[in-house]
Amino acid sequence: MKEKKGTGESLKRLLKDPSSLVLVLTSFIVLILFVIYPLIVVVFTSGFDNWGMFFSKARYGKALLNTVVSSSLSAFTATVIGFIYAYAIHYSNIAGKKFFRFIAFIPLLAPSVMSGLAFLLLFGRGGMISHWMNSVFHVELDLYGLPGLWIVQTISYFPLAYMTITGVLRSISPNLEIAAQNLGARGFRLFRTITFKLALPGVINAFLLVAINCFADFGNPKLIGGNYSLLAVEIYGEIINNEPGLASVMGIILVIPALLVFWVQNKVLSKGSYSTVTGKPVSGLKRITTSRKTDILLFIFNTIISIFIISMFAITILFAFTKNFGRDNTFTLEHMMKVVFSSSSPAVLNSLVLSLVSAILAVAFALVLAYIVVRKPFPGKKLLDFSAVLPIALPGTFVGLALIVTFSQGPIVLQGSAVLIVIAMLLKQMPVGYRGLTASFKQVDKSIEEAATNLGANSRKTLTTIVFPMLQKTVVANFVYAFMKNMNTLSTIIFLITPKWVVAAVSIFNYAETGTYYWAAAVAVGLMGATLGTLGLIKLIFRSKVKIFDF
């Protein structure tokens, strides 16, 4: 018997299943209230007068141009470095591959603003290297503005490019390269015609991901940018000056390139599949590796990048555990006790609590959304799916702006509450889990859930007793991702924090901006310690079900 389809039939089935009806209605209410409604409010808040003011002042146009230039440059260099770094690990015979993988992982434990802090400690006007250059060579380093921002954003987002590209390189089948070699392709020609072409979708994707993160970056431009103003910094200034209309205009402009990037990712890159292009690896075949000379060059390159990253972490740790490193190198725990373990400075604890709560809610909501979108027929499914993935295309700065503009006045006032911070974190991380869980649901045979339904289980019971156990690995992996991103976020919540609910990333930024670098360093170390400790506990609980420290 042919199954009846159509909006009417979908609605009838939904009404017969109260659990599914509640899940669908709740999902619509949450996404309309916190995604669609804030977007509408921002558009109407912008106003024609504010649009005219934006285009009439050269300062704002320059900030937009600076944002595009710096983001493009940083994304390009981060992607190039990420590709070479990943290529060295997967295509060479260099020693220390596990160590290099670990080095690429550790920046993920720290907020991007910590890169700006470390840069100030090393290359700022009073930084160690700046001081050494001045005393030995009488050269004054002045890297504030575009040069410093370019370096900092490149290092901050290089791990993102590396993680994206390494997955693609790992999936390339060696038999294609061996076939090309048998036909006469060698060395750079083999790399250019086969390896790089197969990896190109991943390289483009990495560039786009880094560009969108640089575009929305707030902390580093504020600390390092100097007079080189960027759009995210201008938005922050207008919010501080109580000009939500002008901030909304700039927020909308900030969204346009982000949506273009999102469109390119979904329309252009989705036409190719990594598995289709590369084929499956053939058992027994070994990947063609680089020559001895190339190995040496790649080893030197990865070592230089690793030294740079290690230096940034080392200088931060030294400032955290000395009186005032460079002037008074006496070991002390005073800074850690003052800004990490003191009840009067709960930033790290706040980050831990808010990140855990938000990560749990984000994964739970993503699980519910994926379940009803893949498994349940109901009217408005495409709208719900679009609303669920939309936040991933929005810069964090815009998400925070939209929430503060919308919920700082009636009918719903959430300004100053931890709830709004949790919502902001949830909105930015939930779409990643939703995408992953949607793909996982499609790989699980629907008949298993149908059997549970036939035995009397409703949607809630099926979800908790059948679906969740089968997707536990994906759920835990997405929880770990959401937790790490929440711990390090700054741009998304910079408008939402209050003295009561200040978080670690914001404290690092505030201390660095006021020149109390030892306190900023102490908070950074405390944040990384809390993140690492929580991940270790998760690994202990779930063991082989989650991979965190497998380099």
Automatic annotation (TrEMBL):
Keyword field contains Repeat: no
Keywords of the record: Membrane, Transmembrane, Transmembrane helix, Transport
Family in the record: Belongs to the binding-protein-dependent transport system permease family.
Membrane topology (UniProt): Multi-pass membrane protein
Cellular localization per UniProt: Cell membrane; Membrane
Domain ABC transmembrane type-1, residue spans: 64-265, 348-536
Protein name: Iron ABC transporter permease
One of the Pfam families matching this protein, by short name: BPD_transp_1
Transmembrane segments: 21-44, 64-87, 99-123, 143-169, 190-212, 246-264, 296-321, 352-374, 386-405, 411-427, 493-512, 518-542
InterPro entries hit by this protein: MetI-like (IPR000515), MetI-like_sf (IPR035906)
Keyword Glycosyltransferase: no
